[in-house]
Design a protein that fits this description.
The structure is a homotrimer of 341-residue chains. Chain A contains 4 helices and 38 strands. By secondary structure, the first copy, chain A, is an alpha/beta fold. Chain A has 2 domains: 3-86, MurE/MurF, N-terminal domain (Udp-n-acetylmuramoylalanyl-d-glutamate--2,6- Diaminopimelate Ligase, Chain: A, domain 1, 3-Layer(aba) Sandwich); 96-310, Hexapeptide repeat proteins (UDP N-Acetylglucosamine Acyltransferase, domain 1, 3 Solenoid), CATH 2.160.10.10. Chain A has a 12-stranded mixed β-sheet. Chain A has a 10-stranded parallel β-sheet with strand order 7-10-13-16-19-24-27-30-33-36, with no helix packed on it. Chain A is flat and about 85 Å long. Chains in contact: A-B, A-C, B-C.
């Protein structure tokens, strides 16, 4: 798209050559053909060295640029708008069942449902109106997919999984796998490991979104439950019987062990681990790589470290080497003072 | 199911309204329609506030309940029995090959084998009697699936993988991917990275169970081996040439780097990491998020922290800030004492 | 294969019984039928106790062996050669499209491309010459697969993903999933969470290899980019808008949060975490389980710990308990000295 055409679409003014633009990109990573953006004069060096073919700049910018400029009131906002223009339209998922899909005759499909190639939907499942179930998905017996939900390719829902409305599941999500549970006994000194039946299911509230390759195990009894509007990132592990209240976030590679409860509005950062059978109070944040061995009652709003502690305690721990060095110097001085007497 | 009917099935007595029950659930998360349970009077508050429609209580319970009660000798045991009654029957996997499956003519299928829709089984594979291979599975050339094994949807076994009897593989398990191995050389100062051929395979002993989206890489030469009765949770990484002896457990998101050996009866807790080329002695437990940089000879039975240490050393480390604060106070007192002289 | 035949193939000499050999294996894990190898006399105990049926030994070895011996100049090298001989040939992927594959008529397939069973390739995708796309793969609209690339079963490429030449993607890799991004606002005290459109894509340079079940999210705008010759292990998470320069390595279960930049020739070890919006300079190594909260300028070449620090600082921290104990003993001695006066 010509820069002049884009400038018009964004309500801005083109200065310089009417270059061809194909995509958006940050100042540092932009390539020729890219449109970049800058709002803050403190990033002038990045503007000077960008390889972008054009840059969105605010009216007050007076530091020039090594490429074409599109003047706009709000460069950040304009760049998002441009990104929408450059982005190819989302793939269209026409309502209907792909002829290769294997859908049990007992399955109830709502209006305008899309079912992609090689998808399997088993006995008794129910799919709400306007749901999109892409290619190569597996939906087990008796599952429920709420209206407007979108299931990307190669997701598996084991039997009995229930999704609310407008749920989004990204590629490779695994819902309803057996929880990890065994009874070990000893007979004549030899261990005997028996699998504990995992008789419950997984339920997701409305507007839940789950990232690629995340796994959520079915309950031993009852339900593993993720509340409405909770957003889970990629490669997260949720153990059996976990309950996450609504409006929480769980970032990539974090794990929540069996039967633990996460409150409402919590944020569990990347690679954090929550032990089993504990409770995290509403609104608590667990920092990246933190390990939480026991319940958090909300008296501390942000914990970090393993075992997790307050930011103040954690900061103190980080400062320990300096504090100890200072103390050792003092002790040395005292010893010398005493020796000199 | 009516509470009265369930009480009869469990050998208990109904007190209160003959409500309709649909599922089991813990006291806190139960919903109307749920049956919950309580054994211990110390949880009386949870009973008082439960939303369950009925609760299983022991004969000696004299604290009442806000809902119907089913009296039974052992509430925990009765709840498991009730969960079995509520649970829909497991999906039936009728012996036979789904007409859409692509099974090479050279494949040897045992008696009563189930092969699901869109599953691919390549040349020379052998599948034992009564094995269940669900939909959308990929089984590469020359693989062996032992009798009675159960492979859930969307598992991949790369060529040459061998499963013992009664192995369970949950959705998204990846066995036999190439191990991570490269030779880097420099030519005229430029790096040249060559892939090291990964010529071995993966072998799993009898009764091994592997959780969703776990990955186990094929050996560079020889075998990556998981011994009998070892149970691995979700999202675990097992590097090439690792050996895990029998009867061990590896919990979610833990990782074992290449060529390491885990003994028998070990337990590697969630998010722990085991370095490459080391040995963990029989019966050792590695705590959650621990990092083990060198071999553990079994003289310490439980390690924790990164780098991993004994519980005593770890506890000491956790107490360091307090101990240092005390020492600093003492030093301050000494200085003041000396200054006053 | 007979040991005598193998000895000939390896240019070595057989000593002892002409046993049948079926595979290679390390001294400790070898089974009857295996060929093992030893170069260094310090491992004589492992040779004495191996269960291998034959062992490759160097000419100067004079300590005997409990099995047949094949004398060769370089046992390690000979064992790799033997492993190649034992390994079944790689599965042949004949050029052509499997009749079950669903390939949109608009897709451009290069010469000698293999497309496996149940694979879906959507509108406008382009696949280069000699590419192998195995069974059950999903390739979304407008994707590009470079020539000579190899995509193993059950990989998903969301729309717009671009792969360079000779890229290898192992089973379960997820490219182009939506990045984790939401705007939270409050209306009348209630949170409202809106999904931020993820309008960019994922691009991989030439010779990139990605391990099983690794996830790389599409950019919010622009591109998430992995440079040429970068090798990523299993179960790694790469957030949206991350840039990894060429010739770097990222080991299993590590994670890189959104918009961060990893330099050239970096090595991110297993389970490490890199925060969002930071830069790791060329050639820096981040140790296993390390957590990097801020940019690393390359003045320290290896960091470890969480928060990450130099090996010296980390070692000092590990030694803290000992140093504090020593300091406390000194303070105690001073107090006693003062009390005695």
């Amino acid at each position: 798209m010509k820069a002049s055409e884009l400038a018009r679409a964004l309500g801005g003014t083109l200065e310089g050559e009417d270059v061809e633009l194909v995509a958006c990109g940050g100042l540092e990573e932009a390539r020729p053909g890219d449109l970049s953006f800058c709002k803050d004069p403190k990033h002038v060096r990045l503007v000077e060295t960008t390889r972008a073919s054009a840059v969105l700049l605010p009216p007050e910018w007076d530091k020039g640029a090594p490429c074409s400029v599109i003047r706009v009131a709000d460069p950040n906002h304009a760049c998002m708008a441009a990104a929408r223009i450059f982005a190819p339209p989302d793939p269209v998922r026409v309502p209907g069942v792909h002829p290769t899909a294997v859908v049990d005759p007992s399955v109830k499909l709502g209006a305008n449902v899309h079912v992609g190639a090689f998808t399997v939907i088993e006995k008794g499942a129910v799919v709400g109106d306007n749901a999109v179930i892409e290619a190569q998905v597996f939906i087990g017996e008796g599952c429920t997919v709420g209206e407007g939900s979108h299931i990307y390719p190669q997701v598996t829902l084991r039997e009995g999984t229930k999704l609310g409305r407008c749920v989004i599941l990204h590629c490779g999500v695994r819902l309803g796998g057996d929880g990890y549970g065994y009874n070990t006994t000893f007979e004549n000194g030899l261990p005997k490991i028996e699998k504990i039946p995992q008789l419950g299911n997984v339920e997701l509230g409305d507007f839940v979104e789950i990232g690629s390759n995340t796994t959520i195990d079915r309950a031993r009894i009852g339900r593993t439950y993720i509340g409405p509007h909770t957003k889970i990132d990629n490669l997260v592990q949720i153990g059996h019987n976990v309950k996450v209240a609504g409006y929480s976030g769980i970032i990539a590679q974090a794990g929540v062990a069996g039967s633990s409860q996460i409150g409402s509005g919590c944020l569990i950062w990347a690679q954090a681990g929550i032990s089993g059978h504990i409770k995290i109070a509403d609104g608590v944040q667990v920092g990246p790589q933190a390990g939480v061995p026991q319940s958090l009652d909300g008296s501390v709003k942000y914990v970090i470290g393993s075992p997790a502690e307050s930011m103040k305690d954690f900061g103190g721990r980080v400062l320990l080497p300096k504090m100890l060095a200072k103390t050792r110097a003092e002790v040395k001085a005292i010893r010398e003072q005493l020796a000199a007497k």
